[in-house]
Design a protein that fits this description.
mainly alpha; 3 strands; 66% helix
């Protein structure tokens, strides 16, 4: 209860600061109106900004050793993808496109971590995360088949994240 009120107060404060940054109006009546509208906006739209904490649904003990292995995997994939990306850009043999892949991860924080890990690898960018599906812009689409594309894009990273987040 107290945390919910604090969250809405912070949201109202951010709305008020945003209003001040845009209008730069410091007239007392204007400030009072902005404060009232910021509080009303925070009260009515607070649930849109603050959902259930994804850390509460994740496993309580994360495997630090697997996270370190994930960091090494992302680093290696990044260097390999960078070399391949530069080669394809220089030769002009690439075919960009958007593919839809499905993830096996059950936790929301795990799916978000997967989408961010996909974006970290050069040549891929997560565009949209929808429940268990991720839309990915791929610099060089090797296949349009969603299962094969998902295997090429996320196989190693998803396996590591599954051990961490479930």
């Amino acid at each position: 209860m107290i945390l919910n009120i604090l969250r809405k107060a912070v949201l109202a404060g951010l709305c008020f600061i945003g209003w001040l940054a845009v209008t730069r109006d410091v007239h007392p009546w204007s400030l009072a109106g902005a404060a009232a509208l910021s509080a009303a906006a925070a009260a009515f739209s607070g649930r849109l900004f603050f959902e259930q904490n994804p850390l509460e649904t994740a496993r309580p003990f994360w495997r630090v050793d697997v996270l370190a292995l994930l960091a090494v995997t992302l680093l290696v994939q990044g260097y390999i993808a960078s070399a391949e990306l530069i080669g394809r850009m220089l030769t002009g043999r690439y075919r960009p496109g958007v593919v839809r892949i499905r993830t096996r991860l059950r936790s929301r924080i795990g799916r978000v971590a997967l989408a961010n890990a996909i974006t970290l690898v050069p040549g891929t960018m997560s565009l949209w995360l929808d429940d268990r599906h991720i839309l990915v812009h791929w610099f060089d689409v090797k296949t349009g088949h969603t299962v094969r594309a998902g295997d090429l894009i996320k196989r190693q990273v998803e396996a590591r994240l599954e051990r961490v987040f479930g």
